[in-house]
């Protein structure tokens, strides 16, 4: 804390006094120019004339492209990410694969010489063929501006055998095509197929499909070309957030899916069997399945804002009983495939500060057939009048149960601990959660809200800004900010992919359609240089100054209509989940790449000597260490010689609470004299002692 503050204050002060760079002239990066560009706009701007905007036909479309097993891929599809792809696109394609692994039985693997594979490359625009064409290398283009997860999912659904939703044989029952508003020569894009060519797999017409055109596709003026017969859906069609429930149902039917690779369990406690969870008898209390608690929550999380006393939650009452009473709730047996899991659940504390919830895993192996318990996380804190979202990373490789253990503390309680809407999947947990309460008020304020400072696993400090505009579109800004590790980090910040996700709070993770965008820092861009050099002085709510780097911004992150189309806002709260991943290993992903000659690399690298398990690679002929990173630690430095951990950067763990700012204010005051001394010393060493009026 001390060190961090020291850097923040020092960097701010140095810049104010010694400032030399023309920072104000540095341009921001706007990733979407304020326009929600769809696939068809992107391809049209490039002058492409593809079938239905983004489908590459090899010949005349056969009568039954989607129907017919010869067009199916195997459940695990071989792919190559060509080096032509933008780095951000490469990272996003892998993220899109993760969504397929979570929601369907489709998996992807790097190509190892299989007869047919998908070559994902950066062509002009975003496009794909429909189905497996069985011609060896099958191209799928993710061009400029196509680096969006919904767009990538869309193109891969074409490759898997799907046409656009509005070309279904029954589409005239659901949408009206406004012929006179279509650009001349583009009418063919609105063809529909008879049910011999395209099978809709007995799934209803889906306005929510990621395969549906938007209302403005191929329009000649300003009026929509597609009008939905149910007016409420006019702004729903054309979503590129994620698969819809029906997209997944169709994909599962086409490929006879029975299970997915990474989904494990979802439970909203709506059914009396509580998803097979069991009450322990070796404790002295039980969790109760109830609809509300007098001292809160007034309603469960599943139905909050929708219905009262309809949905159920699990509650451990701490207002009665004695200190140290325990109530244990165990999941059914779970069988991991990947060895890492993310447990997500909502939690409501109306008990006391000393009541605690422990999350444990009980692992069953040959050596311990009755299971061994391991504490993973303890949740304790002041009672709050709202549902909080928690993520717990598990790393379990054998058969296991998840265990929720409530323990009554010594303080007086009027309520207890409640949990609801649990999801468990073999995916990575997001790194940070930004909970924005009183969202209606935030929107009406129309001022930028800044997140607390967050740290990436590598140690970069960053901040998110959220700005509701007059038209209620949400703008998202990402900034690198000055942080505790800046002296030890590489600048400009290279190949860190930041993903900002607005959570769809649907209780079932498989049906969520969260809205997300990603950016990847490019070391050739000055905006990603050290915030001390290219940023501007900014202030935390407690008055502490820091340096905020230029913004990378999505000025049409989500529209109001889309915001209302899913459960993004619940209990007047939204959750923004962020993850920053180092994707520098994706620089070269081509198999048989000649860029690195292993023998040379080995000898040069051996001499270079990366420490602490760092991996040496050659960049432009020079050895570079890629340092290992854990959940809350990382190595940095030229040879990975320095260890960083969340202990050094205390801000991380508690940053989601504003209370940190109060704490920081106190420390600022206490340490001012100390910083003055340190600062003077540093100034002296820089030969600037005569310019230091602190
Ligand atoms: Ca519930
Ligand atoms: Ca019990
Ligand atoms: Zn398409």
UniProtKB/TrEMBL annotation:
Its main location: membrane. GO terms for cellular component: meprin A complex; plasma membrane. InterPro entries: ConA-like_dom_sf, EGF, MAM_dom, MATH/TRAF_dom, Meprin, MetalloPept_cat_dom_sf, Peptidase_M12A, Peptidase_Metallo. GO terms for molecular function: identical protein binding; metalloendopeptidase activity; zinc ion binding. Residues 265-431 form the MAM domain. It is found in: Membrane. Its EC number is 3.4.24.-. It is a single-pass type I membrane protein. Binds 1 zinc ion per subunit. Residues 1-20 form the signal peptide. GO terms for biological process: proteolysis. This is Meprin A subunit. It comes from Podarcis muralis.
């Amino acid at each position: 804390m001390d060190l961090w503050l020291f850097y923040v204050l020092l960097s701010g002060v140095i810049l104010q006094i010694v400032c030399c760079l023309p920072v104000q002239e540095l341009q921001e990066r706007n990733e979407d120019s304020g326009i929600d560009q769809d696939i068809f706009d992107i391809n049209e701007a490039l002058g492409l004339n593809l079938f239905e905007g983004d489908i590459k036909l090899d010949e005349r479309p056969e009568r039954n492209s989607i129907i017919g097993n010869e067009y199916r891929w195997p459940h695990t599809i071989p792919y190559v990410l060509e080096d032509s792809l933008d780095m951000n696109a490469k990272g996003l394609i892998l993220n899109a694969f993760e969504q397929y692994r979570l929601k369907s039985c489709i998996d992807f693997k790097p190509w190892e010489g299989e007869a047919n594979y998908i070559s994902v490359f950066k062509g002009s625009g975003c496009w794909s063929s429909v189905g497996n064409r069985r011609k060896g290398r099958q191209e799928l283009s993710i061009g400029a501006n196509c680096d969006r997860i919904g767009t990538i999912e869309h193109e891969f659904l074409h490759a898997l055998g799907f046409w656009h939703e509005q070309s279904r044989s029954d589409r005239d029952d659901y949408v009206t095509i406004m012929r006179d508003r279509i650009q001349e020569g583009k009418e063919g894009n609105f063809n529909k197929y008879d049910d011999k060519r395209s099978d809709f797999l007995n799934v209803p017409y889906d306005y929510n499909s990621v395969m549906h055109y938007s209302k403005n596709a191929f329009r000649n003026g300003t009026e929509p070309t597609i009008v939905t017969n149910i007016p409420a859906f006019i702004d729903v069609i054309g979503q590129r957030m994620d698969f819809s429930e029906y997209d997944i149902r169709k994909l599962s039917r086409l490929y006879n899916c029975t299970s997915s690779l990474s989904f494990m369990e979802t439970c909203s406690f709506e059914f009396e069997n509580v998803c097979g969870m069991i009450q322990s008898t070796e404790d002295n209390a039980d969790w109760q399945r109830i609809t509300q608690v007098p001292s809160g929550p007034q309603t469960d999380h599943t139905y909050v804002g929708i219905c009262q006393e309809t949905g159920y939650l699990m509650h451990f009452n701490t207002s009665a009983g004695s200190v140290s009473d325990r109530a244990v709730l165990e999941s059914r047996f779970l069988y991991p495939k990947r060895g890492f899991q993310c447990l997500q659940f909502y939690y409501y504390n109306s008990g006391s500060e000393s009541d605690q919830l422990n999350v444990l895993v009980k692992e069953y192996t040959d050596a311990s057939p009755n299971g061994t318990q391991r504490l993973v996380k303890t949740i304790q804190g002041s009672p709050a009048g709202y549902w909080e979202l928690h993520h717990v990373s598990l790393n379990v490789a054998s058969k296991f149960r998840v265990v929720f253990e409530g323990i009554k503390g010594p303080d007086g309680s009027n309520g207890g601990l409640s949990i609801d809407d649990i999801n468990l999947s073999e995916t990575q947990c997001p790194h940070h959660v930004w909970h924005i309460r009183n969202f209606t008020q935030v929107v009406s304020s129309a001022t930028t809200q800044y997140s607390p400072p967050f740290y990436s696993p590598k140690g970069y400090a960053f901040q998110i800004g959220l700005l509701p505009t007059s038209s209620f579109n949400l703008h998202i800004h990402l900034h690198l900010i000055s942080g505790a590790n800046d002296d030890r980090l590489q600048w400009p910040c290279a190949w860190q992919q930041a993903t900002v996700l607005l959570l769809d709070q649907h209780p079932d993770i498989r049906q969520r359609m969260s809205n997300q965008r990603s950016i990847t820092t490019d070391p050739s861009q000055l905006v990603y240089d050290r915030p001390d050099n290219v940023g501007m002085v900014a202030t935390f709510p407690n008055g502490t100054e820091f340096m905020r780097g230029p913004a990378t911004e999505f000025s049409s992150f989500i529209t109001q209509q889309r915001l209302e189309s899913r459960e993004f806002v619940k209990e007047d709260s939204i959750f923004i989940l962020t993850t920053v991943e180092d994707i520098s290993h994706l620089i070269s992903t081509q198999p048989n790449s000649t860029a690195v000659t292993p023998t040379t690399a080995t000898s040069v690298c051996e001499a270079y000597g990366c420490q602490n398990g760092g991996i040496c690679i050659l960049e432009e002929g020079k050895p570079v260490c890629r340092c290992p990173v854990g959940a809350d630690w990382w190595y940095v430095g030229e040879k990975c010689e320095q260890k960083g951990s969340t202990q050094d950067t205390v801000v991380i763990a508690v940053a989601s609470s504003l209370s940190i700012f109060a704490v920081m204010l106190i420390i600022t005051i206490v340490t001012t004299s100390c910083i003055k001394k340190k600062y003077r010393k540093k100034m002296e060493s820089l030969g600037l002692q005569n310019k230091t009026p602190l």
